[in-house]
Structure formats: structure tokens, C-alpha cells
Design goal:
By secondary structure, the protein is of the alpha+beta class. 15% of the residues lie in helices and 28% in strands. A hairpin with a 5-residue loop joins strand 1 and strand 2. The two termini are 27 Å apart.
Amino acid sequence: LFCLDLYNGSACFIKGGSAPSYLARRTNLFKITSASAPVGIIKEVRAERISFSVEEGDCIIMFSDGVEDTDSPLITEENSSLQGGGFSTASCEQIAGEVLSLAQKKRANRDDATVCVLKIRGHE
């Protein structure tokens, strides 16, 4: 789950053992993960909250476990043309397309594949 307060720029991920999410800021890529068990595995839900402030140009990337599992990172320096600032110039559609393309190359059989990309823009 991703929450964004548009008034003050605060944001948070609430992760419950799901696939990792990413925050791309300028040329840095931050992988957001959770050590908790996936929702539905145990009766008691224990989610982790990761809070931060967003900046103009930030790119939030979330996807289902059919795209990436927590054991092997999908987006790395070696396999993504989006590294090195490409996140700031690529459209959300381009980023989602590349993530899905990388996932298809990595796995022949996988679960459903869903990607959500959000870019933080200033007032226009």
C-alpha cells in the first residue's frame, strides 16, 4: 500500500510481506521491502510502515509478486536502461513497459503481472 499526502508531501509504504516496491530519486534507486509474512499466511496481520517525504521528480514503482519476488531483484544496474537518471526522463508507461519486459525475460512461468508507476510532479 502506498499513501501520499498531497498537502504536505509526506508519503509511506505499508508493506505486508509483499513484492518489493521502489523509490527512484534522481540517480538513486531505493528498494522498499518488508520482513513480515505475506498477508493471508497467518491470522494476525503485521505490516511495516516506511515513511518518507516525496520530492518533485520522484518515481514510485510498485508491482505484484508475479513481476518480482523478494529473493532476486528485477531492477539492477546490469539489466535496466532506466538506471542512471532514466527514471526522471521516461514516462510512467515506458517504465511500466520496461519492468514488464524485464519480468518476461526473467521468468517463463509466473503469476499475474501488475505494475503501477507514479511520478511526483510540481504544480503546473
